[in-house]
């Protein structure tokens, strides 16, 4: 399987879709930080802060992650790359797992600009604003608790970032399932992006219902998992990570089951 992973990663990182997605992620992360800074410094009207929604990690990772799943996994079905790998003797489980691992690596790369740029901005100690609440990075920049930038906060920052990476990987794991079930990039993008954003909006309304909120607390779509901050306890970070990893395992198991039973054309 290592050979499959290396081959998939080499192909993905050379693709125009991945290069373009990485560039867009960098531009969005930079733009989000600048808008937060300008509003915090009074150089931009707070009303314009709504612009950060379309630049936020939540929006960009959901959009680009869905697009990459359709391009990478569904594209391999269309070009018979997956079929060829199976005909060469690779099991369906290894093929599916290789795609998933490389996809999650790509997700981490897309999140990297937000991690690096926000960490640098946070270390300056400048005043930032939180025009869009549902963003871990904006919450960190705002730093309402006035947490100093020292070795302890740096370790906590790393823990928060790793937790967030697990949450986003889990949220996007539905794209892996839909890719192996539907094999159509347009449908995968629609489900991954449109479905997730719609679910987020619905959960915002459902938080007033204790039963609904309790049910979704066992999924990475719970609102609290995408806004973990430096104030979060170790227990909260552990729960978010554990729920996300369990959800990923479930999605991969269902994906493999569907892929194993599907016909290869």
SSE map:
Elements: H1 2-14, H2 16-40, H3 57-78, H4 81-87, H5 92-124, H6 136-142, H7 151-182, H8 185-206, H9 210-216, H10 234-261
Helix pairs in contact: 1-5, 2-3, 2-5, 3-5, 3-7, 3-8, 5-6, 5-7, 5-10, 7-8, 7-10
Structural class: mainly alpha
**Percent in helix:** over 70%
Specify the biggest β-sheet: none
Number of strands: 0
pLDDT below 50 for ≥5 consecutive residues: which ranges?
none
- Provide the β-strand percentage band: under 5%
C-alpha-based Rg, rounded: 19 Å
Our measurement of the CA-to-CA distance between the termini, rounded to an integer number of angstroms, reads: 23 Å
Q: Mean pLDDT, rounded to whole units?
A: 83
The count of helical stretches stands at 10
Shape: globular
* H and E order: HHHHHHHHHH
Structural account:
There is one protein chain. The protein is mainly α and 265 residues long. The protein is built from 10 helices and no strands. It has helices at residues 2-14, 16-40, 57-78, 81-87, 92-124, 136-142, 151-182, 185-206, 210-216, 234-261. Helix 3 runs antiparallel to helix 8. The two termini are 23 Å apart. The model has no long low-confidence stretch (mean pLDDT 83).
């Amino acid at each position: 399987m290592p050979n499959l992973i290396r081959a998939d990663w080499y192909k993905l990182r050379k693709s125009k879709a991945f290069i373009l997605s990485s560039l867009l992620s960098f531009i969005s992360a930079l733009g989000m930080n600048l808008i937060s800074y300008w509003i915090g410094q009074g150089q931009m009207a707070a009303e314009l802060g709504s612009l950060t929604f379309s630049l936020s990690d939540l929006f960009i990772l959901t959009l680009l992650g869905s697009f990459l799943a359709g391009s990478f996994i569904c594209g391999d079905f269309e070009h018979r790359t997956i079929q060829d790998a199976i005909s060469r003797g690779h099991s369906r489980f290894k093929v599916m797992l290789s795609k998933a691992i490389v996809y999650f690596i790509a997700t981490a790369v897309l999140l990297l600009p937000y991690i690096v740029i926000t960490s640098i901005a946070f270390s300056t100690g400048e005043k930032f604003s939180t025009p869009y609440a549902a963003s871990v990075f904006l919450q960190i920049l705002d730093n309402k608790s006035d947490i100093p930038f020292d070795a302890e906060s740096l370790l906590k920052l790393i823990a928060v970032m790793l937790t967030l990476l697990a949450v986003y990987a889990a949220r996007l794991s539905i794209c892996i399932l839909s890719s192996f079930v539907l094999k159509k990039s347009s449908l995968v993008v629609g489900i991954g992006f449109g479905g997730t954003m719609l679910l987020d909006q619905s959960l915002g309304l459902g938080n007033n219902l204790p039963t609904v909120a309790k049910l979704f607390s066992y999924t990475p779509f719970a609102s609290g998992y995408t806004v973990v901050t430096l104030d979060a306890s170790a227990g909260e970070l552990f729960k978010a990570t554990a729920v996300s990893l369990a959800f990923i395992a479930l999605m991969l198991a269902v994906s493999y089951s569907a892929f194993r039973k599907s016909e290869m054309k």
